[in-house]
Known about the structure:
heterodimer; A: alpha+beta; Four Helix Bundle (Hemerythrin (Met), subunit A); Helix Hairpins; 5 domains; 6-stranded mixed β-sheet; 5-stranded mixed β-sheet; B: 155 residues; 5 helices; globular
Amino acid sequence: MSIENDPMAEIRATFFIECEELLEALQDGLQAMEEGGTDDETINIVFRAVHSIKGGAGAFGLEDLVRFAHRFESVLDAARSHQLEIDGEVLSVLFRAGDMLNDLVSAARDGEAVDPSLTEEAGKALDALIGADGPDGDGAEEEEVADFAPMALSLDLGPLDAGEGAEENAAGSDVPAAPGEAGAPGGPMAGPDGSPVSAGTGFRIRFRPHSALFASGNEPLHLLRLLDEMGTMTTLCRAEDLPPLGEMDCEKSYLHWDIFLETSEEENAIRELFDFVEDVCDLTISPLTGEDMAELVRHAEAIAREEVSPGGTAGDGALMAGDAPGSSGEVASGKPEAEGSPPPSAPKTRKAGGRSVGSGRNEGGSKAAGKGKATGGVKTKPTVRVDLERIDRLVNLVGELVINQAMISQSVEKAGLLTNPEIDSGLNEFMQLTRDIQDSVMMIRAQPVKSLFQRMARIVRESAAAVGKNVRLRTEGEGTEVDKTVIENLADPLTHMIRNAVDHGLESPEERVAAGKPAQGVVTLSAGHRSGRVVITVSDDGGGINRERVLRIAIDKGLIPENAELSDNEIDNLLFLPGFSTANEVSDLSGRGVGMDVVRSAIQALSGRITIQSRPGEGTTFTISLPLTLAVLDGMVVEAAGQTLVVPLNTISETLTLGARDIRVLGPETRMVQIRDTFVQLFDLGAEMGYRPPLESFAGKVVLLVALEDESRAALVIDGIVDQRQVVIKGLQDTFGRVPGVAAATILGDGKIALILDPADIVANSRNKAPNTQADLSLAG
Amino acid sequence: MTDTEDKAKADQTELLSFRVGTQEYAVDIMTVREIRGWTNATPLPHAPPFVRGVINLRGTVLTIVDLSDRLGMGPIEFSERNVIIVVEAGRQLVGLLVDAVSDILTVSAEDLQPPPEMLTEGPRTFVNALTIVQERMVRILDLDAALPAAEIEAA
Lengths: 781, 155
């Protein structure tokens, strides 16, 4: 039942993790195609991704997935062989198919089902591209599965694999593979593939070049290549005579080849090839016997055993060498033809045996090639996959370390030991190290926003299709790294914003053309780091916010008074009011009653801010600004009413001490402070938090000027400032749920918990509060 | 050990009993994570009065519930013997502030009796069952009902 008890479950889990990577590569490839990169390599990357998913899915018997991937693959294959021209139309089908594949993978992973009609629809669209009529028959499918199942196991079960994998090799062999580096000394074995032949006859050729062969300017590689053209060839390069490196004479020849050639040619034709070198080599040519084939099978098994680590061992490397020059990708992808070829019958023992070596080779070769090329030839840094739980544990521990360090500093200071320079410098170093460790750990949690952006690309496609608009998503700064939690929590608000941009932001194609814009609208999603925060923008090149309409709706819905005079910016911000929705009719996409206010609260829950800029006729931009991490923040430790509180440093713009004259009274309760030539409302923090009744006089108190979302300011009255330091954020939500005015908690150097304030929330609560403060006080106890 | 003894043992539960005001309560000992001396809690603004605040439990934020206040007997009288019983309810840890811990009791299922009807009819009852140990009545606390989380979320 549980994962621990089922080894298959673990392999399955690995498969799905790989699928995620493959799907990402697939998206990347499609995106590159969309941007005009329809070169062979890009198509190959996409093909390989789909192909690998199909392969894995076959091994796990995920038939829906296999079937769909197969249809997808057929189209890509046509594109690869230039039978299908990639244009916008085709791409949109491919994108849809990519999305469907994604859904099928998720469904398979979670054991759910995908609506077959949707799959069928996407599949039909694919089939239509290449004029195929529906999915393959059952027979083909079974073969498919049989074809793939052994692949997943072949690495450590060579002998078992040998027979079954043969078919695949047959497919791969239609590519005239050059022996490549096969002849290079050092490769103990090498084996190029040959072209398909029907006859089961052939020769075993033993070829041992003398040193003189090399001296006379001949090259075994050419000979092997010529041989290869004559039929299906399997080559074993014998290196047993190779002396240890130190004793090796570079002018001498140590290697010899054992060649199994299936060909319809005569022996003489073969001898002719060796005409020029006959006197400088040992050459025996004999007809192939059953014994030879058995020997070949033994070699195949030996090779399969050596190949346990994929793409790793020397044997593997040498085997791959035969395929290396350009053909390895083809070997892997030559598969579709295999499905058409008849299953091996009567003389198959020989055939299967003869090809088993190749099978092993194909496996290794294609794997390595796939890996290498998927990354676009760029050398990737080695990475490890780590359970997120472990990282979280590390993050927590480092948090403890920071707290502990603060505690030690505090007690050392208390004990009056700071006068000792050694202790002082040691403590400073400790502090520095703690900070470095913390930064490094936070970097582990950071992830590029790419995956998030890719999901958004899909949202754009789907929503554009739903409202009948032609929309392109442009992304910038995909590599920007953001805390994983932030990425996870951004998906929903971003989805909503993207839908809004497509649905409300962009005009219809006709309107666009009328306004002199291209019919295709562009939604831009960008990410970047700016002054210690992550800034994500969602912008469209649509018509901008229709301020008159927004104002009208807000008044109609009673959100603002009839005669309100609002600045453009204020009108734009009405969009964030709860219950505001501009769509005249509720469309399929947005306007489900969840509005931008939900987006805003989601962003605020991440300690972020969202702002809006709009220009009539040019479009609208939403800017989200987020802290780099949710785990630590720089805070000002303050005291109010005997309680220690932390105010996020980035919200504080200024601090000052109040004199009796600075305070102006407005109405019965509101007090303001004059700061240069502006008045800012004062909020008594101790009273707002319910620690004590409001103060009569603020004279001599300290105020923190805090900047609010709407760029207005507020002044929090506190008793004094204690310290300014980095604090570790501890969520309150888990234990208690949301507390008004409080963002989170932290643990101070003395081990006490201090609350981290959310000044904007305190101010908002205070403004919304009923005048009867006494009631609130008694509640807060 | 005989079979009957074994069987009897299976039916038995161990309870941690403690004093709140003048009354004796108990919780299943399997829910108890630890018992701590009283430390000053950081009050939470706008929280119900029975939530005394939060304390630092080795790096996690622990909510402290004044059980006396929660059970409608007014805020606890401060004394040096006050302790915090850290219990796990649902998936969260909560600290119960009580007057003192009394005993560990072993009771069998048949010794537990339901609270009287009139009590369960009331708007809130935090008692699952009653039992008598050495002539004293011990009330088995219904942790899920007594703890604040659900209530706050609902509010």
